[in-house]
Design goal:
209 residues, 2 strands, two-stranded antiparallel sheet, mainly alpha
């Protein structure tokens, strides 16, 4: 049977009390959209409607799964953070005296998500809520590190900021001219073309000078 969040917030709710979690941090932004981020009814199909003990609310489990992925921690550490880490309490809307859950609940929850094809629910929900709130853009610029690429496109210092704060690009032989022609080099003054044919060491020396 599916458990649900109590709509009556605790007097010890971490979000309602003074705290030092930055509003522009991942945890602060998650807290700002917590009311719309995950809803228990969204995952109702994963639970028996009239049999068994009430589960941990799936909205809480979804939030824990997202934070666990963000912080790259184990199930046991994730449970500990819901009890002792104020950032997690604020992000999840938990009370300061939250008693925690058993770590096996997280693995069981992930199993249910996979069985019902909902494994992207937490991530997609955060992206959708973030876009609606305005702190996740619809379009972003992706800068790719080509350090480990082989051939003419292998450049150790592909993108770097200059002293004036602009974005500059130092490209390899074929990659340089191809990307310049395609117009995909980052905004800002571009390094002179004579760098494109230079050896890596001399190119880096020219870039830093």
């Amino acid at each position: 049977m599916m458990g649900r969040r109590d709509p009556q917030r605790s007097l010890f709710d971490a979000q309602a009390l003074p705290h030092r979690v930055p509003a522009d941090s991942f945890y602060g932004r998650m807290a700002a959209v917590s009311d719309d981020l995950f809803r228990d009814d969204d995952l109702e199909e994963m639970y028996c409607p009239d049999n068994g003990r009430p589960s941990v609310p799936p909205s809480v489990m979804s939030g824990m799964t997202l934070l666990q992925f963000h912080d790259d921690v184990s199930d046991g550490e994730a449970v500990a953070r819901t009890m002792f880490d104020l950032r997690w309490k604020v992000a999840l809307g938990l009370p300061l005296d939250y008693e925690g859950i058993h770590s096996s609940s997280l693995s069981n929850f992930r199993k249910r998500l996979v069985e019902y094809g909902k494994e992207r629910y937490a991530f997609d929900g955060f992206v959708a809520a973030g876009r609606a709130a305005g702190f996740i853009l619809d379009k972003v610029t992706l800068l790719t590190d080509t350090t480990w690429a082989k051939g003419a496109g292998a450049v150790q210092n592909t993108y770097y900021p200059d002293p004036q704060g602009h974005t500059q690009a130092a490209q390899g032989d074929g990659l340089c001219h191809a990307e310049q022609a395609a117009g995909v080099i980052a905004t800002g003054p571009v390094v002179d073309r004579h760098l494109c044919g230079a050896e890596p060491k001399s190119r880096d020396r020219l870039v830093r000078s």
